[in-house]
Automatic annotation (TrEMBL):
Species this protein is from: Streptomyces albipurpureus
Protein name per the record: Uncharacterized protein
Length: 170
């Protein structure tokens, strides 16, 4: 939602998305939220439409319009962080990989399966996302890397190349 808000305002020096791509982002957000049972009712569907809407309503930011959706998503994330991983019920809770040096771990909460890397953390990758029953796919790994690395605006091929380079240098 933050990316969508930033892109709708279009006030950054070099936007990541053009108007058509911003409209696609709104449609994608709408589809994802609908799958979660959250209905997205925005008065605008593109950056240009948002500009017209903001002028008409004297709104200077889409933040307020998106706050309700952010709150609902945060609530779902909190509930899934507890129920979705199922820690000791044999689902993956901690995924630590590509370690150059063996990470040293401590158990923070044995009942919940929460561990913390206390040594050599900089020499390994730690996934903070739940692994579905289908397992970890390369697409999910690249998505995770793009957001972790802060490079979600880069072309997909660049993200894959940067992840591959990180995995081979670890």
């Amino acid at each position: 939602m933050q990316i969508l808000s930033t892109e709708l305002r279009g006030d950054q020096p070099s936007p990541i998305l053009d108007d058509a791509e911003t409209a696609d982002a709104v449609r994608c957000s709408d589809a994802v939220l609908n799958r979660l049972g959250i209905r997205l009712f925005l008065e605008y569907r593109s950056r240009a439409a948002y500009k017209r809407y903001a002028t008409h309503t004297n709104s200077d930011s889409p933040e307020g319009d998106l706050d309700g959706y952010r709150a609902e998503l945060a609530s779902r994330e909190r509930s899934e962080a507890i129920a979705g991983y199922r820690g000791v019920a044999c689902d993956v809770r901690n995924l630590i990989f590509a370690a150059r040096y063996k990470p040293e771990l401590i158990i923070r909460d044995a009942a919940q399966g929460i561990v913390e890397v206390v040594k050599n953390k900089e020499h390994c990758l730690l996934s903070d996302r739940p692994v579905t029953s289908a397992g970890l796919t390369m697409a999910e790994l690249v998505d995770w890397w793009g957001f972790r690395d802060g490079e979600y605006g880069r072309p997909r091929d660049d993200q894959v190349d940067r992840l591959r380079a990180k995995l081979t240098t670890q």
